[in-house]
Task: structure prediction
Amino acid sequence: MRIEPLLPDRTPTRGGRRRDHREIIDAIAFTFQNGTQWLRLPEKYGYWRAT
Result:
């Protein structure tokens, strides 16, 4: 993946497990393609505040 070097490490230093980078990037692409707000994402992307 071309942007992989720009993404943070997947092992958290504190807190819980990080979400999959592909899922976050897909959610961002969805918001741009559909012109929707982040809090109006479909449930398949999970709770909007948890990302």
